[in-house]
Amino acid sequence: MTTDTTVDDPAGPADRHDVLVVGAGFxxxxxxxxxxxxxxxxxxxxxxxGVGGTxxxxxxxxxxxxxxxxxxxxxxxxxxxxxxxxxxxxxxxxEILRYAEHVADRFDLRRDITFDTRIRTADFDEQAxxxxxxxxxxxxxxxxxxxxxxxxxxxxxxxxxxxxxxxxGPIYHTGQWPHRExxxxxxxxxxxxxxxxxxxxxxxxxxxxxxxxxxQRTANFSLPxxxxxxxxxxxxxxxxxxxxxxxxxxxxxxxxxxxxxxGVLQVPEQVRRAELEQRWxxxxxxxxxxxxxxxxxxxxNRAVADFVREKIRATVTDxxxxxxxxxxxxxxxxxxxxxxxxxFETFNRADVDLVDVRTEPIVELTPGGVRxxxxxxxxxxxxxxxxxxxxxxxLTRIDIRGCGGRSLRQVWADGPRSYLGLAVAGFPNMFxxxxxxxxxxxxxxIMAIExxxxxxxxxxxxxxxxxxxxxxxxxxxxxxxxxxVAGLAAATLYPQADSWFIGxxxxxxxxxxxxxxxGLDRYRRxxxxxxxxxxxxxxxxxxxxxxxxxxxxxx
Length: 555
Known about the structure:
- By secondary structure, this protein is an alpha/beta fold.
- The protein is 30% helix and 16% strand.
- The chain is built from 16 helices and 20 strands.
- Strands 1, 2, 3, 4, 5, 6, 17 and 18 form an 8-stranded mixed beta sheet that branches. Strands 7-16-8-9-12 form a 5-stranded parallel beta sheet, with helices on one face.
- Helix 1 (26-37) packs parallel to helix 14 (445-465).
- The longest helix is centred in the last third of the chain and has 21 residues, at 445-465.
- The protein is globular.
- Mean pLDDT is 92; it is low at 1-8 and 543-555.
């Protein structure tokens, strides 16, 4: 390992920074803004050609946020909150991307981002106490601290079936959609997957295609979004109350702003049905939090799941198709709940077929179609809505090496281990925004991002004030946090589902429940207590000599 950082270092002075950030989505952008304001030199490296993260890549028809746009937005800047005008209750991908681009312009973030550059390796120099990142083409970036902002759902998974390379038509993945319009008019299309992106992409493709065949492995619960344009007065009312609304969101487990204080079985059946009917009719984001025990009590969960299954059967006219679309075998909410616009109604079309691949598995792609164990389905195009190697895949695809040259991939071979979902023992000066072990995907993720970025900014300021150049998760505290996260999950119904929350969608991936289920409010309080106590759980080492000359911008 190189220790002389002033000689034969391929990184020029322009590529040396206090903080290196991998990713320029919502987390990466806020990191740049926050840390720059505190006087740190910070630089982000982004594989995409622009900002936006998942909203840069996920351009498939129907891509839309499942959190209300007035809530799925930054809260750190009141002028930003007031000036941006959302057009829809649930913003579509193009509008969210425009919002991200507006933020980048407003705060002049692009000057601290290198685009179209994918990081391949990241190595910690123990003597110099620095991270070196190497990208495609050999470019090197050096910094004291490394913060990953790679996103929880960014490492797309594409099946590799026999015959796939012989298929003569185009193959698309919802998470890697072309940056151009894809016209399916007159085509026979296959969509593989009925998770969140599949549920969104299927209705608009059905509107275009001559025929659509949907290959479903697992039926998923989905709720109607009831999307609509935002009325000017409605948006103005929210903006006038933003301080109160954001305060409520910060004290809410899911960083939303509505729930009840009673359990499903604590109220009469007619009261329960009335509450669920109202939230179903209104497209309430907080449908699952209408009651407090949906994810902890099997009987309570069944009552809510049966309500949704009734709605599916009432919507889909063919009884056999309706039963295939009714989720069975996992409690509602233990897989990512979906929000849709006309999803179940799509299966009433004569030009849409549903194939259950559990009973009729896909065998191969042929030059002109999809062959199952029973027959061949002729198609002109295939759309994979097959999801991601969630929460860990985007990290382990980079060769990250900490103390002793050990790789993160090796350390996490039996499942990810971290302290607070933010730091990993053996990887000093590295932090993971919305990493495994944090609330991340179970809450309004932008609120989770803001909490992480602000906590990390305070920590880096604390270290700078004390001239500390190395910080690392304490293994014992990390073990305790991992056990705490697992214990909370075990007390819920989540582990009963084979979901990407536990890595079940990736063959060979360790079955570990990845996010923290205790809620962002509880998590925030714990993080604040740790900061107030001087960061127990983190090892703050003594200062080390700065390996760079005084004029080099490294802390």
